[in-house]
């Protein structure tokens, strides 16, 4: 029996996932949580084989920072000798989101509009420790591999994502714990790879190529 925990801040999503999963005789949904922090705590409590994790959670209490799914995945893997397999199930399919989740340790990445049969197959693959990517995600990653010049590293994608959000070099450095000189170095590499000369053009080019 594959024991599954659902981590999503929308109850309707959890209900839908539970209905799909419990139609399989060898899958048991052992719990549900609505925050990434609760997912970490539940994972550490044990008794879970696969954790279906959303990528982004609600705003939470005003003035506090909410952990996202990738951060929770990294924390689970850091803190546990034998962590459950994390399968990201989300609406977001940008390169930055996908690479960030996989770099954090997720064994799979599925979109919420995936057919039930694909989700069930992904859970079974994750339980075995195998990679489980939705066809859309797999196509995006293979396309990225075919265009190495424009392939940004996960760190460069993090920098560019913050640029797109309007952060200054100082703000980016603070968020990622980097010096401003390092941020500038990353931007130089980003500009070169995208063939642009400005922050605005870099963001536009990345969005056009599906990176953001």
UniProtKB/TrEMBL annotation:
<keyword id="KW-0804">Transcription</keyword>
<dbReference type="Pfam" id="PF00072">
    <property type="entry name" value="Response_reg"/>
</dbReference>
<dbReference type="InterPro" id="IPR016032">
    <property type="entry name" value="Sig_transdc_resp-reg_C-effctor"/>
</dbReference>
<keyword id="KW-0597">Phosphoprotein</keyword>
<dbReference type="GO" id="GO:0003677">
    <property type="term" value="F:DNA binding"/>
</dbReference>
<keyword id="KW-0238">DNA-binding</keyword>
<feature type="domain" description="HTH luxR-type">
    <location>
        <begin position="145"/>
        <end position="210"/>
    </location>
</feature>
<dbReference type="InterPro" id="IPR039420">
    <property type="entry name" value="WalR-like"/>
</dbReference>
<dbReference type="InterPro" id="IPR011006">
    <property type="entry name" value="CheY-like_superfamily"/>
</dbReference>
<dbReference type="InterPro" id="IPR001789">
    <property type="entry name" value="Sig_transdc_resp-reg_receiver"/>
</dbReference>
<feature type="domain" description="Response regulatory">
    <location>
        <begin position="3"/>
        <end position="127"/>
    </location>
</feature>
<keyword id="KW-0805">Transcription regulation</keyword>
<dbReference type="InterPro" id="IPR058245">
    <property type="entry name" value="NreC/VraR/RcsB-like_REC"/>
</dbReference>
<protein>
    <submittedName>
        <fullName>DNA-binding response regulator</fullName>
    </submittedName>
</protein>
<feature type="modified residue" description="4-aspartylphosphate">
    <location>
        <position position="54"/>
    </location>
</feature>
<dbReference type="GO" id="GO:0006355">
    <property type="term" value="P:regulation of DNA-templated transcription"/>
</dbReference>
<dbReference type="GO" id="GO:0000160">
    <property type="term" value="P:phosphorelay signal transduction system"/>
</dbReference>
<dbReference type="InterPro" id="IPR000792">
    <property type="entry name" value="Tscrpt_reg_LuxR_C"/>
</dbReference>
<dbReference type="Pfam" id="PF00196">
    <property type="entry name" value="GerE"/>
</dbReference>
């Amino acid at each position: 029996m594959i024991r599954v925990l659902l981590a999503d801040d929308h109850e309707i999503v959890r209900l839908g996932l539970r209905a799909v999963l419990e139609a399989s005789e060898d899958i048991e949904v052992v719990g549900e949580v609505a925050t990434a922090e609760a997912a970490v705590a539940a994972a550490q409590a044990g008794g879970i084989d696969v954790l279906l994790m959303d990528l982004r959670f609600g705003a939470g209490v005003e003035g506090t920072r909410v952990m996202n799914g990738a951060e929770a995945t990294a924390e689970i893997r850091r803190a546990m000798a034998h962590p459950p397999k994390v399968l990201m199930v989300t609406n977001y399919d940008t390169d930055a989101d996908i690479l960030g989740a996989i770099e954090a340790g997720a064994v799979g990445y599925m979109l919420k509009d995936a057919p039930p049969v694909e989700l069930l197959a992904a859970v079974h693959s994750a339980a075995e420790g195998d990679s489980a990517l939705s066809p859309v995600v797999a196509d995006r990653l293979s396309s990225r591999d075919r265009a190495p010049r424009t392939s940004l590293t996960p760190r460069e994608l993090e920098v560019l994502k913050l640029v797109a959000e309007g952060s200054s070099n100082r703000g980016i450095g603070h968020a990622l714990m980097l010096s401003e000189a390092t941020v500038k170095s990353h931007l130089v590499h980003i500009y070169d790879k995208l063939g642009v000369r400005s922050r605005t053009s870099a963001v536009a080019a990345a969005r056009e190529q599906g990176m953001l």
